[in-house]
Specification:
heterodimer; A: mainly alpha; MetI-like fold; 77% helix; B: mainly alpha; 2 domains; two-stranded antiparallel ribbon; 76% helix; globular
Chain lengths: 269, 313
């Protein structure tokens, strides 16, 4: 124990600490800049330091119906896509985690593939798929695209939890006369509940933020928030509104990330 | 089971279904797998397959109509110098971005795994996760603010008197350009920033798996800390670096937003594919272009597996 205490009390060199600190600053400086510019009084340039601070652009944003409509669209898409991903991801995890069969590796690869391949590949592929099936681009084609790459976050979380759950609990439940449904309801689901929540939150965040696949699977009528944002980025007009919208978007995504992190941490402890 | 056997009539539908599933695990497996396999295996893989097929079609030069016959014409167009330049440019950017990400990520991941304790450790972990999951577009947008001529980076450089260094860098051939936001240099910053968390996390995971006893043994046997790092810690963490590089390389290869928003509007694979399938209506060539990152990543993954990266994921 003595030597272990010595090892743990050793300190990082100044060089290492500086390098780590620099990386942390690099990761967060741009987010701080977004927060600052939301209050900027300057309308036409990105001048630093800002000449003054104001809250007036927040009021301006509340009047922008296009922003709120696309926000509503994004929330709906993310909600439905998350539900589909929860079902498909949990089914896959339940099938994979204890059984061995031919093609098992292929299935876990298949689940990861939509997110491992560049978004543009998945996007164009789905676009040709939808065209071939002669479907109209709509709310539902966006959902299909999003659910496809969201399955993996649910699958990863649930399969990890199932592997940690003792199978003897399930056997005990069945031995005591419970049906599969009762076992599912009273043993399996309570065990995997927080992993479903964590996976669901991440799927939601992933869908809420997705832009590349969405540009290929949405119709002209449907505008998600990232598509709206992309329009603002490529056609730089009303900069102040974009600045405020950027801060609002960061704030919205912050909540599910924190929650998902808490759920996975609690489970690990 | 015995209970059901005694009162077969009283067993509800649910109970009978339940025991059927218990006796026939293969049937249960099939029922569980059918929905995800229909979705991913038929719809998604089918779409990918269609994409590959389309790359063997060709566009008629005069009418601009897609001719649905097998031909290698489109690939002949893909391998012309102008198009290959796009591929090389994208691959070179992906390689440099990957290298820089690894250099920036390693010290932080190392500090997190070896020195940070308790609250500090979860705080750092969260500090990496928040940018990773924050809006991708907003994070790109923030760099428009930072790199602008009147923006904060130039203000900092001016304040500490380094504007000369910036001008010298922008005057360099290839990486330079009229201003930071219209140069490869600026684009490089944005790529590194956006993908950095993907590099930190696998390196951190690999470093956390290095047993402390190995480090202690090395120092007990008289190795200096630097020697222990080179001979024990780094080789064990290397698969993590390779795992991270899969993400940074692949994501840079396929991205089409960053080169569109920042940079000197010379073509990268992503924007090229987008404009080919959109404005030019040349879907076969767009499809052939998407095969390029798939092939490159296929080879990359094979090499990565050799280097043990998959165990580090």
């Amino acid at each position: 124990m003595h030597s272990r205490a010595e090892v743990t009390s050793e300190r990082a060199s100044w060089g290492l600490r500086l390098a780590a600190l620099a990386a942390i600053i690099f990761l967060h400086f741009p987010i701080a800049i977004i927060a600052l510019y939301a209050f900027n009084t300057e309308e036409r340039t990105y001048q630093f330091p800002p000449p003054g601070l104001t809250l007036k652009w927040f009021g301006e944003l509340t009047r922008r119906t296009d922003f709120w409509q696309s926000l509503g669209m994004s929330l709906q898409v993310a909600l439905v896509a998350t539900l589909v991903a929860l079902i498909l991801g949990t089914l896959t995890a339940a099938a994979i985690y204890r059984s061995s069969f031919f093609g098992k590796e292929a299935i876990s690869l298949l689940v990861i593939l939509p997110i491992a391949l560049p978004g543009i590949v998945t996007g164009i592929a789905l676009r040709s798929g939808i065209n071939t099936l002669d479907l109209d681009f709509s709310f539902w084609t966006i959902v299909v695209g999003h659910a496809t790459f969201c399955i993996v976050t649910v699958y990863n979380n649930v399969v990890a939890r199932l592997r940690r759950t003792a199978y003897s609990q399930i056997e005990a439940s069945m031995d005591l006369g419970a049906t599969s449904f009762q076992t599912l309801r009273y043993v399996v689901l309570p065990n995997i509940a927080t992993s479903l929540l964590a996976g669901g939150m991440l799927a939601f965040a992933l869908s809420f933020d997705e832009v590349i696949v969405t540009t290929f699977t949405s119709g002209t009528q449907q505008q998600t928030l990232p598509i709206w944002m992309l329009g603002q980025l490529t056609r730089p007009r009303d900069r102040p509104v974009t600045n405020v919208a950027a801060l609002v978007v960061i704030a919205i995504t912050f909540v599910p990330i924190l929650l998902a992190y808490r759920f996975t941490q609690e489970a690990a402890e | 089971m015995a209970l059901i056997a005694e009162n077969p009539k009283k067993a509800s539908l649910a109970t009978r279904f339940s025991s059927l599933m218990f006796r026939r695990p293969r049937l249960l497996l099939f029922l569980l797998l059918a929905p995800p396999l229909l979705w991913l295996g038929i719809f998604y893989l089918g779409s990918l397959f269609l994409l590959v097929i389309q790359s063997f079609y060709r566009v008629d030069d005069f009418s601009g109509v897609v001719i649905r016959e097998f031909s290698l014409e489109t690939y002949k167009t893909l391998f012309t110098p102008a198009n290959m330049e796009v591929v090389y440019r994208t691959a070179a950017m992906a390689a440099i971005v990957t290298l820089a990400s690894a250099l920036i990520a390693f010290p932080l991941a190392y500090y997190m795994a070896r020195y940070a304790k308790g609250r500090m450790r979860s705080l750092l972990y969260l500090a990496v996760l928040v940018p990773l999951w924050s809006s991708y577009l907003v994070r790109i947008y923030s760099w428009k603010l930072i790199l602008a001529n009147e923006g904060v980076l130039n203000w900092i450089l001016q304040t500490i008197g380094l504007s000369g260094v910036r001008d010298w860098l922008l005057d360099l051939p290839v990486i330079g350009g009229p201003s930071l936001s219209f140069s490869y240099l600026g684009m490089f910053f944005v790529f590194v920033y956006i993908w950095l968390p993907y590099m930190i996390l696998p390196i951190n995971a690999a470093l956390e798996r290095v047993p402390r006893s190995l480090i202690e043994a090395s120092s007990d046997l008289g190795a200096k800390p630097g020697y222990t790092f080179r001979k024990v810690i780094f080789p064990l963490a290397f698969p993590g670096v390779v795992a991270g590089s899969i993400f940074t390389f692949s994501l840079t290869l396929g991205d089409y937003i960053i080169p569109t928003v920042i940079g000197n509007s010379s073509f990268f694979i992503g924007p090229a594919v987008n404009s080919l399938q959109g404005t030019s209506g040349n879907v076969p060539l767009a499809a052939a272009f998407t095969i390029v990152p798939m092939v490159i990543m296929g080879i990359y993954l094979l090499v990565a597996r050799r280097l043990g990266a998959f165990d580090a994921l």
